[in-house]
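Researcher: I'd like a structural prediction for the single chain below. Treat it as a standalone chain; there are no partners to consider.
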Amino acid sequence: MTTLPIPRLLALALLPLLGACDRSPAPAPAPAPTAVAATDAKPAPASPTENSRMFRAQRISEHRDGDDLLSAGLGLDGLRVMTAPAFANAEAPTPAELRRRAVWSNWRGIADLAPGGGFGTLYGSLASVPGREFQALADLPGASQPHRVLAQIPDSFDAKKRCLLVTASSGSRGIYGAIAVAGAWGLPKGCAVAYTDKGAGTDYFDLAEKRGVRIDGTLGGSDDTLAFKPDTSAGSGVAFKHAHSRDNPEADWGRHLKQAAEYGLQVLSEALPQQAPFTFANTRVIAVGISNGGGAVLRAAELDGDWLDAAVVAEPNIYADAKGSRALYDYTTEAALLMPCALPQLGLPAVPDQAQRCANAVQAGLIAGADLPAQQKAAYDALHASGWTDEALRAGSLSVMFDLWRAVAVTYASAYGRYAAGEAPCGHSFAAVNADRSARASSAAERAAWWAEASGIPPGAAVNIVDKDPAAALAALNCLRQLWSGDDAAAQRVKKGIAETRAGLPRQGLPLIIVHGLDDGLVPPAFSSAPYVAAAKAAGRDVRYWQVKHAQHFDAFLGLPQFGALYLPLLPYVYNALDRVDAHLDGAAALPADAVIATTPRGLGKPLEAANLAMPQ
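Model: Treating it as a single chain, here is the predicted structure.
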């Protein structure tokens, strides 16, 4: 495969998709949605489900007449605009303004909306869908912090079909993190959609100011009902739920998803009393998710009971009890240390500090080599030996460019070890920074935008990773790796948390389609979906597996012409798989067969066509 260089300006233009840079100053104010009514802190009816699970701080809003559920009134053209929807007052945006920007950010972080990319023509819909939103904080038994749940009920809800799509955000994203995945398929079809942030999300907390995020996205003090309220003894900087909840949320992803489904049914009964009750027995429930959201669906699929009718999963981060499966933390810390050194072996440009990167890997005992070329080859050979393919390494170069490997490792080490803010095992913290990377206080405008702009994992939205000793940043990478490969108290603590995330098998008889791009460089299928599918099939589970050639992890980056020329989007296959399981549940068709999908890249400057996708029949 020919690899084309990524122009720096294009790369910088796409940085917000990973939350890897700060926003430019807000543009002139745009009109706010014209018809949003909300009631805050309305007590939700008690859930009649297992463990008397409770939803609190419920907020209900209506979205019609210039606003809607799917795009906050922006439509495809509005979502394509490069500048975020404005706040009239940057330090005190309204809930409607925050929601609109959050929807804009999450669509652009997941989907390829660029002209010629096929969205809205070959696949997907951004038709206006009026309706109501219900959101609340959900208290999971045993957890110290709540997770967010949100249910969207379209005015066009199909009373004859009674369909609920349940989903979890990808990555560490906030509550709208799966709107382009689940909302785009379910809402135009008249299904309700229930979401969870699965214990992560963008409810950041300023430790010095003791200010966090309310249910509506606005800021409140520590005496308010906040979506995340950490221990504040760290004194300064920023805490966020994925890293600092002390709950190891990944261990409970499946329970988060099921609780979101329970909330969706409760809300349907509340919103449509003439059709109530809505239960798992009389409502079709389909789960869908990508990346970490896909991992959440697979963890939910193993839970007891017939509450779930079918599931569709794409590029799942899943650590299976199966041969070949590797924990995300294992291969992330490996990639952080070795991939920057190895990339020139693939004909890719060297990172600016490559000599130091290679020397650090030698010092850490990961590779050997008398000179730089020998070290590059040793790093490349080591990655190959541990299961990385050339395709995954090429696509993984994107994560090197954005320093994503380190960002994942720092956050997940804290989460797995259940560390509080200020306790990170390798000395990292999070804060706004000055030009010299030293920590500073966040401004009021920066704090106000966190909920709408952040990706849930720094760097991004004016929050960065702060090294305890900036001069020893590479040594800190070695420390992060030692939490996997070592055996001291900190390593045992982190590895215990990782072991809690290991997945079981899906429930017997559950229709399940898994889709994965064979060029995925962030969650390679060889470490995740492939061993999971093999184990599930060996146990007689009904799993169908689509392996898509020339597809990598980030559809949103296909807006870069060079990436769009080489790679195909994965979302069309997710929507198609949902169509197929829906038809199967209707009794209209069998589930599709396994497939290795031989796609055809469109090439530079060409629009995506159906023939490029080679969709399974």
